[in-house]
Amino acid sequence: MPNAMRDDEIVELDGPPHFEYGQKVRSNRVVRNDGTFPGKDIGEVLANKGDEGYVISIGTFLQQFYIYGVEFLGSGYRVGMKRKELDSAEASAAGGRA
């Protein structure tokens, strides 16, 4: 198995964002509050694996990563997520993967 790149070796900002504004996405893992989500305890679940939402903002983090603001349909939470935490819900619904 080839060595995977570590996060500190990746510079996503060298290319365009992977997702677009308004794109339907799906969380591919459980996302918990790391202390940056107001009104929720640290460790509280913000998104479960399989939860779907829409990209409502695209920002950057550490001049290295895109951060996608995703509004989840079921909870109404707006959560900042990295590319590796998301899959396109549109592509998977059509039988492909992004």
Task: Please provide a written account of the structure.
Helix content is 5%, strand content 35%. Strand 4 and strand 5 (65-72) form a beta hairpin. With 98 residues, it is mainly beta. The strands form two sheets. It has a five-stranded antiparallel beta sheet with strand order 6-5-4-1-7. Strands 2-3 form a two-stranded antiparallel sheet. It has one domain (7-93): SH3 type barrels. Residues 94-98 have low confidence and may be disordered.
Task: Write the topology of this structure.
Blueprint: E1 24-27, E2 31-32, E3 45-47, E4 52-61, E5 65-72, E6 78-81, E7 86-88, H1 89-93
Antiparallel strand pairs: 1-4, 1-7, 2-3, 4-5, 5-6
From the N-terminal CA to the C-terminal CA, the straight-line distance is: 22 Å
Domain module count? 1
Biggest β-sheet, characterized?
A: 5 strands, antiparallel
Q: Please identify the structural class as seen in this structure.
A: mainly beta
Q: Judging from the principal axes of the Cα atoms, what is the shape? A: globular
Give the number of DSSP strands. Answer: 7
Q: What's the number of helices? A: 1
Mean pLDDT: 83
User: What do we call the CATH topology?
Assistant: SH3 type barrels
**Residue runs with pLDDT of under 50 for 5 or more positions:** 94-98
Q: Helical amount among residues, as a percent range?
A: under 10%
What is the CATH first-level class name? Mainly Beta
Known CATH architecture: Roll
Order of helices and strands: EEEEEEEH
